[in-house]
Structures are given as C-alpha cells and as structure tokens.
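re: ur msg from earlier - yeah i can do the flavin-adenine dinucleotide complex, just paste it... oh wait u already did. ok heres what im feeding in:
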Amino acid sequence: MKVDRNRDAEVRNRDQGDAGVDAAQDVHHSDDPRDFGWVHENVPCQSACPAGTDIPAYILAILQGKRGLSYEINREANVLPGVLGRICSRPCEDQCRHGWPGNGEPVSICHLKRAAADLKDIGHRLNESLYGPSGKRVAIVGSGPAGIAAAHDLSLMGHDVTLFEREKQAGGMLMYGIPEFRLPRDILREEIHNALRLGVDLKTGVSIGNGKGETPLSELRNNYDAVLLATGCMAATDLPLRDALKGGSVDEITNIEYGFDFLLDLHRGLEKKVGKRVAVVGAGFTALDCARVARRLGAEDVTIHLRTTEEYIPVTKDEILEAKREDVALLGLRTPVGIHSTKDGRLKSVEFVQNRLGGWRENGRRKAIAIEASEFEFDCDTLLVAIGQKTAHDFLDDKLTFDRWGNASINENGMTSLVGVFAAGDYVKGASTVIEAVGQGREIAKGIDTWLVGKPRYKQVVRIEKVTEPLRERSFDFIARCHMPTAEIEGRSASLGLEVENGFDEDLSHQEAKRCYLCNLKYNIDVDNCIYCRACIEVAPKNCIKMVEGIKINQDGTYGDLQETTEWDHVGAIWIDNNECIRCGACYNVCPTNCISITRNQLVQREF
Ligand SMILES: Cc1cc2nc3c(=O)[nH]c(=O)nc-3n(C[C@H](O)[C@H](O)[C@H](O)COP(=O)(O)OP(=O)(O)OC[C@H]3O[C@@H](n4cnc5c(N)ncnc54)[C@H](O)[C@@H]3O)c2cc1C
Ligand code: SF4
Ligand code: SF4
Ligand code: SF4
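and the outut:
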C-alpha cells in the first residue's frame, strides 16, 4: 500500500534531493482528472501493473544506487517483490514505452525488481502499522498471494487477522505450484514472514470445509466480523476427449496425471516418477513447469503439445527460451482427441487432431481450428495434462453466486452474495497470475476495511513534484536491453532446486536502469516565456515537440488530440507531446529562456 504519509515524504525528499528533486515546498497533490489522466496515459508500465507498482520511481532509485529504497517502493505496492521479481508474468513490459515501435526493446522491469530485492542494503524499512486496533476480526481462507497481500494490508489497517491454510506451509501456488528452480523457497519464506509479521495469526494445516476434522465456513462467519475467501483455483481442468473408445480414459490408464496434481504432490514432498518419453498437453505456466520438472526427473524426450503456436501462449518469453535450452520441444497446432493404451492398461500414445490457426480471440490469442481427418498418434509413456485450473467449491456450506465460469461473483467492495464474506484472487478471476492476485488482494482489503469501519479511509491523488534536471542522458537511449545470466544447462538436471536465473549484479542493474525513460517525468513548455526559437524542435530526437494551433479537451477534462500546424501565423503554442517524448532532456538543456519545466507525477494514496 502506498500511503503518502509525511514521514515517507520526508524520507523520499531527503533521499532524492541530490538527484534534482526539489525540497518539500515544490511538491503538491492534485485530484484534477487531467492529472490522473496524464499519469494513466503516460506511464504505461504502471497502468498495466495490476498492483499499480510505481515502476519509474523504483528504477530511478536503482539508477541512483539506492537499492534499498527501490525495494521499499516496490514493497509499497506489492508485499512480495523478491518473488515477483522472479516469476511475474510482466504485463508491464508488454506496454513499456521503450518497446514501442522505433524505440527498441522494453526495459527489463521484472529483472530490475529482482535486483532491488537481491541487492538491497541491510536494514531496509518495512511498512509499519498505520492505525490502532480497530477491534474487528477478519478471517482469511487461503494463504496464496491474494490472501497474504490482503492479510498484510488489513493488519496495517488495525484489524485482527487470522489466515487459515490447509497445507503445511503458507504460499499457495508459490509454495506448491511453481518449482524451486524458478522460485527459491528461502526467498519466498522470508517475504511471507515479513508480510505477516505485523501480527497476522497464520494457522497452517487447517482446512475450511465440511469434512471430518475440517472447520466449517459458518464457524468463521460466526466468529469473525468479515471473512475473505482466497482459495485459488484448486481443481485441474478435465481433458475433454472426443470419446473414451480409443483405448481408455484418463482415469483408467496408468501413467496419465494432471500436471497440477503432479506439481502439488512433488512440492508436498512425495516422490514423483516419470517415464522416458513425457508428453505434456497445455500451454500455460503449469505445462512448462511440468515439462521442465520431467526433464530434471530424468525424462529423455519431453514434448509440450499446443493447440495454437508458441507465439500465443500465456507465459513469458524467457520461460519458453529456457525450456527450449533444456531440450523441451514445443509442438504446435494439435488438440488431443483420444488416448491409446497397451493391453495391460499402460499409456501407449496420445491421438491428436491437426489444427490450423483461426481468427483472434478477445484475449489477444488465436483460435485453433481442427483440420478434418488429420488425426495422428504420438507415442509416449507418460502424459501430463495441464490445460488449466478451475475453482473448487466443496468447502462451502452456504450458497454463493458464481459467474458463468464458476468463479465467485463480487460487488465493487469485493463482497460475495453472502453478507460479510469477501473473495479475491484466482477464486474470483479464474486461473490468473500472481501479480493479479496481489493487486486484487490489496483492493479487496480496502473494500473490507471500508465495510468494517463504515467509510473509505483512503483516496488516490497525484503527487506532483518539481524536478530541476532531466535525471538521465540522451546516450542512455542507445543501451541495448541487458540479458539475464543463467545457470549452465549441464548442471540444471542435477537438482530441482538449482535456480536457473542468476539475477543482475550491481553493474547490470545500473546499466539496465539507465534505459528507463522515467515516463512519470512530464515535460512542459511555458508558452508565455517561449520565444519560438525552435531550438528544442531542432534538437529533439523524435517528433515530440509540435507547433499547435490548439489542443482538444476531452469530456473527462483530460487533454485530447493536438491540432498541429506548420503555418507560423497559426501557431498558438510550441507543445511537448509527452506520448512521443522519451524524456531525453535534450530540449530542456538547449532552451535559451529556461521555459521548459519538468515535474514528476506519481499516484499515491492519502488518508481521508
Ligand atoms: C504450476 C503453476 C505455475 C505458475 N506459475 C506462475 C508464474 O510463473 N507467474 C505467475 O504470475 N503466475 C503463475 N501461476 C499462477 C499463480 O500461481 C496464481 O494465479 C496465484 O497463485 C493465485 O493466487 P491466489 O492467492 O488467488 O491462490 P493460490 O495461490 O492458489 O492459493 C490458494 C490457497 O488457498 C488454500 N486453500 C484452498 N481451499 C482451502 C480451504 N478450504 N481451506 C484452507 N485453505 C484452502 C490452498 O491450499 C492455497 O494455499 C502458476 C500457477 C501454477 C499452478
Ligand atoms: S520506459 Fe520506464 S517508465 Fe517508461 S514505460 Fe518503460 S519501464 Fe515504464
Ligand atoms: S525530453 Fe524534450 S527533446 Fe527529449 S524526447 Fe522529450 S520532448 Fe523530445
Ligand atoms: S527552445 Fe525554449 S524558447 Fe525555444 S521554442 Fe523551444 S521552448 Fe520555446
């Protein structure tokens, strides 16, 4: 939670003053829709982050060598920076201005997050309790990222929080789904500990449900003022085969397993075995993890079978690259339609139908269209089915309203159809991502707080701060994206726990931080002092400074299209198009009348 308390502001101003940020009197806060609109439009990485992480602020801190501060800034938005710096799905990088046409490759935002966590100075600050005890009790079911983020924030708000987890350890899919070679457990445990240490009562090994030895949900509803369901997507999606007549069904044939259960069992400590030829069906994180685990368990031939092609699968490019380097083959354009078994009931082959690419889906991916009479068999001795996860509801003892995908429906505060029962994370969104779960966990925590105390206690404003120098150089724009150093391929199969990505060191993180345009810097020309000398236009690296007749104002008060002109007698102003601007500072440095100013614009939460 990013709360703009005076003490925080002081610390920030002290820390950043030497880098061109003026003292506190040059800071003001705005709730003008134009300022909100500016940040949303101009800081695309932050707008794309479901937790609203202040990305340019934490990258600037790395640039200044303040990795502890960078970690703190990250942690204000997301309580698990060291975790997400490793495994985030990175929606921010897809939107990064540096990746826009003509600008090169996106900034390695995620690797920088990890660098801040790995290289932070000893004694970094943690958020402290904001409010005194409210006397309200909140029960949270499920200690995945959504439950942890909500528990952390609710305890900061002064509520008495108990977190119930059915497994032996907290962490949800971070602990039981994602393999250790992507996410070391000591990092995970440390960040969970720090998130919960403000007084959250964690009760592991406690299952909420209706079975023997379980605690019924009604008991929590009776004993707590609010209950949050953060129970994730705990059931594997069934494999829809055309029929079972090809030789057997998933349940009858040995050596077929749901990839989700396979990973859960592995991380619960069970011994898992695979054959020599492992086929994985599916296209998400679970499928890739199953394949890479199978390789480490000794499989010689590991294939992943996709309905479309690898360009359209919802994992990061790095995951695909590393899987391929580990000799996992991704085979596209096929859908499983049947399974063939040997006489003794063992898996012999999977029957696929060949697909071709169809039109686009709403989610930006492609449809797969089966080609008639194109079935073929693929021999394998182990099949891991990883085509998705869905919510499980067997723990409920009262009726809840679901959407058409079987996910919990909630109102704007996060409350389900049961009064006082809220929901967050994959249980609401369906199988999603860690950063979505963290972002929603925090949002719903605010909704619970509002409901418990009877009014909202936070509002968002734009913090606008005068900056007296560009904070970066034009030469930084030509630095190529830094690549993540990784473990040698040969050594990887020796251990399931050997982390594949080694992280950026100080030099690499500093070099990569230089690449960030710091998009929250707003360049502005004071038209009253501009002498129309065009020096800025001539030095500009892009079509970023324009002669305009006027600017449209949108209905919500934000700036709309620029009415450009080349006719001097029509020029009403020389205007910086902050959308085109790459914050190189060239115009600022060249202007003879100092009429170009820079401000830093950040979204912050303030207490009412
Ligand atoms: C193998 C795998 C790899 C993934 N890799 C990535 C990745 O690289 N990047 C990414 O962004 N996302 C990844 N994801 C998705 C991501 O892990 C989830 O979106 C995220 O964990 C959802 O968080 P959550 O808190 O909603 O639920 P979960 O993390 O699923 O946690 C739910 C918790 O609730 C507990 N629980 C459920 N029912 C009960 C009950 N009745 N009583 C008590 N406790 C209960 C469960 O035991 C579990 O601990 C991956 C998922 C899997 C399965
Ligand atoms: S250049 Fe930096 S601030 Fe701009 S979108 Fe990319 S990461 Fe964000
Ligand atoms: S800082 Fe000035 S010159 Fe540089 S890209 Fe932005 S508007 Fe153009
Ligand atoms: S350099 Fe300064 S004075 Fe000259 S046109 Fe640009 S903003 Fe105006």
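cool cool. The first strand starts at residue 27 and ends at 30. ping me if u need the other ligands too
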